[in-house]
Amino acid sequence: MHLQESGEMYLESILVLSRTNTHIRAIDICEYMGYSKPSVSRALGLLKEGGYVISDKNGYLSLTEAGREVAEKIYDRHTEISAFLELIGVSAEIAAEDACKIEHVISDESLEAIKHHVKQYKKQ
After folding, report:
1. Using an 8 Å Cβ cutoff, are 76 and 68 in contact?
2. Domains, in order of start, for the chain
3. What gap in Å lies between CA 44 and CA 40, rounded to an integer?
4. Is residue 8 within 8 Å of 72, Cβ to Cβ?
5. What is the CA radius of gyration of the chain?
6. Under a CB-based contact definition with an 8 Å cutoff, are residues 11 and 74 in contact?
């Protein structure tokens, strides 16, 4: 199953929430992302069908290995792009917003160049 941008965003949100919460439910995702319960339920159903998310008998959500792999990749892209934008003078808030948009479309080659640039700058 090929994930759309929205699917990647849901997986990234679950990853971020899992870093501060031991139990994540659909309502937590609704609150975090600002989406309606029906929208989140539909998306989670698709992610479960695709093998990216599972839920236990209590309704607690967790990422599968495949889901975690995608989520970590998107989160890494987000943090690297955000750091780069801040490095060139963009405010933290705008950098985070723009990184959310860019992280889904940037090529691996471009991301690696950004990582290299940020790493070189931090050495100075």
Report:
1. no
2. 5-69 (1.10.10.10), 72-123 (1.10.60.10)
3. 6
4. no
5. 16
6. yes
DSSP H or E run through 28: helix 26-33
Separation of first and last alpha carbons in the chain: 43
Helix H, strand E, coil C: the string for 30-88 is HHHHCCCHHHHHHHHHHHHHCCCEEECCCCCEEECHHHHHHHHHHHHHHHHHHHHHHHC
pTM of the model: 0.86
The tens-digit pLDDT sequence of the chain (124 residues) is 568 889 999 999 999 999 999 899 999 999 999 999 999 999 999 999 999 999 999 999 999 999 999 999 999 999 999 999 999 999 999 999 999 999 989 999 999 999 998 888 887 7
Name residue 16's amino acid: V
Q: What sign has the CA pseudo-torsion 33, 34, 37, 42? A: negative
**Alpha carbon separation from 59 to 7, 23, 33, 44, 54 (Å, rounded):** 19, 9, 18, 11, 9
Q: Using alpha carbons, select from 51, 56, 57 the residue that is nearest to residue 11.
A: 51
